[in-house]
Specification:
It is built from three helices and nine strands. It is an alpha/beta fold. The protein has one domain: Conserved hypothetical protein from pyrococcus furiosus pfu- 392566-001, ParB domain (Alpha-Beta Complex), CATH 3.90.1530.10. Strands 1-6-4-5-2 form a five-stranded mixed beta sheet. A hairpin with a 4-residue loop joins strand 4 and strand 5. Helix 1 crosses helix 2. The protein is globular and about 40 Å long.
């Protein structure tokens, strides 16, 4: 290893079925995409990829449309990977010009009930979490 090489620390993902009432959104959803995704999940009968959630605050980091789709389908449990959002391996970037974002702002947007517009933030982590399909029937 060269002196300039850096080691990437893996983010630790804890899988859980989370009470849907515990989760809060930091972004609004695109209604057209929500309709399409809800139909897809209903047709397939599974959610393929869990959402990502800050374990401390319950703020959704990735998966706003999946959470809303599952709630629309009457699910009380949401498959989620819970992460420590303060972990330096998780980064957030703005997607919309003129709307600055940072981790503190993401949590504040979620907890305040004043979410950003859809697709305002982009979260990145060194290693993406694995798919973990869960049947729709087990989430009701």
């Amino acid at each position: 290893m060269t002196p300039s090489a850096t080691l990437q620390r893996a983010v630790i993902y804890h899988f859980a079925l989370v009470d849907a009432r515990r989760l809060t959104a930091h972004e609004e959803v695109d209604e057209d995409h929500l309709v399409e995704l809800t139909a897809e999940i209903l047709r397939d009968g599974i959610l393929r990829q869990p959402v990502l959630v800050d374990s401390e605050s319950g703020v959704i980091l990735d998966g706003h449309h999946r959470v809303r789709a599952l709630k629309t389908l009457g699910c009380s449990l949401i498959p989620a990977y819970l992460v420590d959002y303060s972990d330096s391996g998780i980064e957030v970037w703005p997607r919309r010009p003129g709307i600055p974002v940072d981790k503190e702002g993401v949590v504040k947007a979620g907890l305040s009930g004043l979410p950003y517009p859809p697709k305002t933030t982009r979260h990145e982590w060194p290693l993406p979490p694995e798919a973990r399909p869960v049947s729709l029937s087990s989430l009701k």
